[in-house]
Here is the input.
Amino acid sequence: MTAPGRRSSTFSRLLRHGFTDPSAAERLLDSPELTAVRNDPVLLEALGATADPDLALHGLVRLLEAQPAPTARRELLDTVIAAKPLRDRLLGVLGASAALAEHLARHAGDWQALVMYEPRDLHPGVEEFERGLAEADDPVSLRVAYRRCLLSIAARDVCGTTDIAETAAELADLATATLRAALAIARAAAPDDAALCRLAVIAMGKCGGHELNYVSDVDVIFVGEAVEGADEGKALRSATKLASHMMRICSETTVEGSIWPVDANLRPEGRNGPLVRTLASHLAYYQRWAKTWEFQALLKARPVAGDIELGEEYISALEPLVWKAAERENFVADVQKMRRRVVENIPVAEVERELKLGPGGLRDVEFAVQLLQLVHGRADASLRSGTTLDALQALAAGGYVGRDDAVQLDDAYRFLRSMEHRIQLYRLRRTHLVPEDDADQRRIGRSLGLRTDPVVELNREWKRHTSVVRRLHEKLFYRPLLDAVAQLASGETRLSPEAARERLVALGYADPAAALRHLEALASGVTRKAAIQRTLLPVLLGWFADSADPDAGLLNFRKVSDALGKTPWYLRLLRDEGAAAENLARVLSAGRLAPDLLMRAPEAVALLGDSDSAGLAPRGRAGLEQEILAGVSRAEGATQAVTAARGVRRRELFRIAAADIVGSYGTETQPAEADQGALVDRVGGAVSDLTAATLAGTLRAVVRDTWGDTLPTRFAVIGMGRFGGHELGYGSDADVLFVHEPRNGVPEQSASEAANKVVSEMRRLLLLPSADPPLLIDADLRPEGKSGPLVRTLKSYEAYYRRWSLVWESQALLRAEVVAGDEDLGQRFIDLIDPLRYPAEGLGDDAVREIRRLKARMESERLPRGADPKLHTKLGPGGLSDVEWVVQLMQLQHGWAEPGLRTTRTREALAAACAAELIAGEDAEILDEAWVLATRVRNAVMLVRGRAGDTFPTDPRELAAVGRYLGYGPGHVGDMLDDYRRTARRARAVVETLFYGA
Here is the structure.
């Protein structure tokens, strides 16, 4: 007897053998069933070798208890002790699967299936499994026979007799035999239906690919035809009955549980389509309506049951269509979008535990392999395998995937599939989530041979393999493109020029030959620079392919790299700064404006890094003005000074454009900006501040060059239009008024000449041909328009506005704001015009009618000939002009009474009008949405084309690039135009009511 306070030697031995509850194990070993062998070292050693010794012992005791007689119990126990093969197989299953232990307890004689293996039993196929299911003639007996066959598969698996690929293939073969048995039961139950039709069962998904899990939906498609002389309609109805019955036989729960769900949702039209179609109907659907993912799914199609000849006809008919899928527009983008959608649909709490669908999971490997198969399988039949690992091996052998990458992916896929199998085997439940409980993780780790510290080792290996997959799965597509143009080691297989061309075309490159030349120039050679480029380019190529113009992205990257390749910081920045490389790829492939700005001074790439605290955030006006004025003060002469100011403007325009593009596209770590209005306000405010600072610097340069520190007259620049409203776009002119006031003792004529010279020189210097974009100063909103003087004194403005001012001028002055020059003079100008733009008691009826008349005339006369009014962002119905005139009319009528309306900003004034209940909240939202969208379109057109425009581009690539900027994926340009029309139409309806009183 064990002394008090001391543990028994059995307890200690059990701990050493891996039992986690030795006390419970001692009690089980003391049970009558095990009395004879409780101290047998062979039994303890065998239990200790299982994934979960406690579970194995418990299952063994239950199995012994379930034996029908003492002789049967002795036979089982003697065989376990004497026969090592049975001992390992039986205890291995009991220690890995509570569900199969339950099956053995209910069917106590099934352990005999594990006693002895014939050589042919080591790797059974469909024929052997059909023999195992042969006696099943109803759903219940089919389940029992299925579990008996499953028991033998699991035994070979946990003992290491078969590897993961062989186990998955055996599970698929067992599923094939089960479908055939289920169909036979269904046919026997309805012989009349069976006589009318031919029915083929096509396995899809993992079953079709010969890589099934322990518990998985078995995806199928049904093909039916009438037998000779039968009516097709009746035959299809009969085939549908048989197919439905077959599915129920496998899926429904009985006293023996269910087998697995049979899922036919991959059929044409999914759940909405007929369960069974004729071959002709299938073919017509795939020729006309099928989406890219449906051809991807067909990679794994395989006839498994029913009329095999009809199934082969189905495969032969559809196979040519599968291998043409890569020629479809937006093919790669469609596949990648499908993958992203899968990840997005995973509950946030489960993403990190998802073995199959999560980032770095099994689906990443499968999608990458299938993508490559579809691209290159057209020309290389060796790639046409439905099995992931076989396809990966073929891709590596053909040079379509780097060998080292293929080996790492193969290892990762095998490990992750093994984890998935062990998780499912425990309860025989369909799950892909790694359990959180330490006991479960310990069992899984031990089952995979991780015995030192199973939980820690399992998590380390799991994270290592998912990290490998995350790193490789996208690179897998792009790396061989570099190998195709690089010097490879002897014996390495490279992608052929034709295969490289196919892959680039699939990625959306219009000129694959040029793309290959760029890759060769960037990545060939043995220099450190070329080595870093080979590391960067696989990822960059993926980002370029995500844009509307991959060719431009790659060409621009080569240009920047040629310009900066010798600088020590450039490639280091892209390699080491997390955001820099992706930001650069987005900017270079989003259109012409940002790359053009960057090419003029490539060192601005440094702004794209994420270590600089300033980053891409727009700079404030004070900081910009300080930098520009400092540059002006150091320059020799006005020309050099303004060149310095324009250089700062060019760099900051690039910063603003880059931030806008990155915010609109989003990155892998930061989603696209959801608040479109915030993007518009950021760009409008930043460009307006930059323009004001540039004018301030130019004014200082001109004055200093001719008059030194003091101009003979006070001088102020008043921003108008979008400039005054802080709403400038990338291509906007600077609308301004100039006002001056002679200093004491200076004759008015001299002051006027000085002021006019300042204006003339400012305009000239800002338009001088140079590498920097010009800035056009537009003063056409001045009194008397182009016929009036460019500059007036404050008194002259006062006299004009008192005697001659028209209502349209009051409306234009709503946007007036001081932007440069003498602040006191500028403020006095603002004080002068306030009574005009916010007239006491508002506008009279005549003035309102005049504004409406002017608006109507502008709509009919100013729209460019041939332009589609519904898509004109400025003058079209529901465009910028519509919204702004509604807002400005409310400002003119109510600004005197509502302080919130006294702003130059459209959105701010609209919000104030809503707060003052001058416009309904819903109407305000409609107008705001239309104004923001129209502004975003104008900004997009400038970014994409490099020149301003008020309508959508007609070039397909440019139009697609505008769509990407606005958040529309490949192939959704039509949706973008429809959405714009709908938004504008709703806004126009509000304008008709509020502005015209309709």
In short: The mean pLDDT is 91. The chain is about 60% helix and 5% strand. The CA atoms of residues 647 and 772 lie 6 Å apart. The first strand starts at residue 197 and ends at 203.
